[in-house]
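User: Could you check the structure of this?
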Amino acid sequence: MSPTETDPSSVASRQPDPASGPAVVAIGGGHGLAASLRAIRRFTDGVTAVVSVADDGGSSGRLRDLYHVPAPGDIRRCLLALANTEADVNAALAHRFTEGELNGHVAGNLLLTALTQTGHDFIGAIHQLGTMLDIVGRVLPNADGPVRLTATTDSGQVSGQVAIKEAGGIHSVAVDTPDVACPKPVLDAVAEAEVIVLGPGSLFTSVLAALAVDELREAVEAATAQTVYLCNLRPEPSETPDYDVARHIEALHAHGVSVDHVIYDPAGMEPGNLDRFSADLTPRPAALAGANGLVHDPELLARALSEIH
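Assistant: Sure, the predicted structure tokens are below.
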């Protein structure tokens, strides 16, 4: 094994202590998955975050194009959501430069890329940064290399996460990176999970983007865990305008993903006709919004998630 490779067994062996709470795998991307992690860590230390690396915009897009690394931005957000370091350290790693050659880059993205180039593969770099941040649980990418997302939209085929989001009218997403694989530690974590949480976040470019890697989607479908879809607080104009909860579940089914529970806030999103899924799906309406009504409240979300066994 070369010095830049990480032995997958060493990462996979970092399993949650059963005494610390249920084994939970949370899958998604962006700000939504970080919100889930802030809630999940309140009732278990046994959390594994599986993060989409399809982002091709901003700092992440520039770094993946220049250094051919998986997109680091959403990974960095999830590491900070699970960190036990001082607030000023977290703020420094989330700092976005606004001038000069570093304009637009985020400090944590640069550090994660630097760790990848100095003695680690990408998973090893994530593990090292997680150790530095004293995180709860683990953070892993959904794929072993850079992923290019493609979509069928009202405008035809569109390639690239940013372009897909801008196009709107999305019908389905997939990856057009034929040799991409899901890392073994991810597959092991999914197989051993007691609860699998999908979302919240942009339905197509975060949640389904993460599940677009065939091996991961198949592992989730084969898992014995209770699978939960955590719905956005309200329709998202760029991807899911006029969607109710039932349309979210339809989109998951159309991509080969079934869930046992859906958690949603009826104050912000209509349930739609969930009765047609009643044989296989348990709707769980709950007050979930924070004080500003824009993001999930971690305590309310933790309460709703911890009731699922």
